[in-house]
Design a protein that fits this description.
The protein is an alpha/beta fold. It has two domains: 123 residues, Ribosomal protein L30/S12 (60s Ribosomal Protein L30, Chain: A); 164 residues, SPOUT methyltransferase, trefoil knot domain (Alpha/beta knot, 3-Layer(aba) Sandwich). Helix content is 34%, strand content 19%. The chain contains twelve helices and twelve strands. Helix 3 runs parallel beside helix 5 and helix 8 runs parallel beside helix 12. It is elongated and about 70 Å long.
Amino acid sequence: MDLHPRLTGPVVTRPEAPRIKEAAKLAKRSWRTKAGRFLVEGPQALREALIRHGEVRPAPATLPSQDDSSRLVPAGAILDVWATAEAADRNEELLDAARTAGVRIRQATADVLATLTDTVASQGVVAVVERLDVPLTDVVTREARLIVVLSQVRDPGNAGTVLRVADAAGADAVVVTSSSVDLYNPKTVRSTAGSLFHVPVVTGVGLPEVAELARARGLQVLAADAHPPAHDLHAPWDTGLDMSRSTAWVFGNEAWGLPAADRAGCDGAVAIPLYGRAESLNLASAASICIYESARTIHL
């Protein structure tokens, strides 16, 4: 097979190639956790990853092997990238971004990349990236104005969509509790559309820990929950809720919302008024409305 003039060879043609086999293990949550790395698929996500990589590794460097235990790799650093020749032809600006970031893209066949993705039709670009999460105390600070917390959210698409909304609304961070879906699930990563590389993220913490620290740092902790008693999002003054305060929003499970204990651990619950005949809103829609209401009042 001919080598594309803007990709690095030799061309990877075997799924059994050592680095491909190691990368394929990242499809499993347990291996992602152990390795501290995850897979990024598609030009859009990789474009944002390259920007982040350029920020954390401004100069080209020899990347460590997949089994390197030194872990002296910055969060968000790109460790490997593979692309098909066809994808390279379609994404010349991506190749330029890779060169600017000092990242070499290795050429691979479509069959090889298919072993690294769970999509029906691969977009022809896959990367291995170092995890991005930061400690809770780094983001829940007295300067933080808007924190988004996902508790027992199980759907990867919903989690990724809420993170994308948080990014658009200028949130300070997104916290994904230990009871929620893995933030680095390939479906979650895809659904963030690159926003994963923009917003500080925290994983593996409990909701009580988040709520306690948020209150200690001066944030109010609000549960998005329609069950009474609850403040009306569109008339918060009627019940004394100050939406201009720094807020940590807590969003619960898609099917059953927040358990009573989780709701009790918040400072109050807020309901979105329904003016039509819909019985309820789905998680991503409800989260979008609440997050943007806080963003609107914060930025007035």
